[in-house]
Amino acid sequence: MEPSMNASSTNANKQKSDSTWTIARKKFVKRKLAMISLFFLLFMIIVSFLAPYIVNTDVTRINLAEINEEPSSEYWLGTDRNGRDVFERTLYGGRVSLTIGLISMFCVTLIGSIFGSVAGFYGGWVDNLLMRFTDFILTLPFYVFVIVLNAILIGFDRVTGMWSLIIVFSLLGWGGVARIVRSKILAEKENEYVLAATSIGGKPSKVITKHLFPNVMTTVIVQATLLLASYIVAEAGLSFIGVGVPPDIPSWGNMLMEARQTDVLQNQPWVWVPPAVCITLTILSINFIGEGLKDAFDPKTNRG
Question: φ, ψ for residue 85 (rounded to 5)?
Fold first, then answer.
């Protein structure tokens, strides 16, 4: 009995010594669906960003001699109404859509984390001021302001359609993250380690970055995955109705825009099915990754 008890106690001590990140990583690896989704998402990102090295043709060049060609050995996914290769445009479109999603996610997470951390840590009038401004941002009709601001930014010569969407998403999308981070900071700042760091004269910036924010990082990571999916969908939806990425820049949303024509929708599925499948599978993979991260960082399942 004693050896088994010693072994169990050793395992218990080992589990206690493992950090939250180590436990979460081990649990996440065990989730097959989340791991498959992670590999698929990485594959899509790598293939999309290596598109210029995979295909060497100009995806914006119009070829009237090859209009509406069905899938063949020469054109794997056929051509569209302008004679452009659908396979090549799908690769380049993924680069644009994923770039918008990834950069917007990073900017929104950064802005929201800063606002939420400062508001939660200082409290008082600082909290009231920042949260009232956050409430104002959250009350704005998101898509209406995205369309208006995007149209304004596109008017500047140095701002392309892709970057205008990123700027607008970043300016209007951080409110939810700020509220979540603030609530976590309010709960964490009452702990003894934070009070000790403050009592010995620690600067607020160091207390926030070194003590508070690392303990809310897990929640921010899970929220970031959801943001990535939402911004990819937002780009696709806005480009589909013609107010997102300009038509001359290939994106998954722009490729879906051609499905608004009844003839293309019914008789030329090779034009819109590939980007639709890419968007669907990418969003599903991101959601599965988010669910896996949520369960991995859940302290209730850690006890199990």
Answer: -65, 120
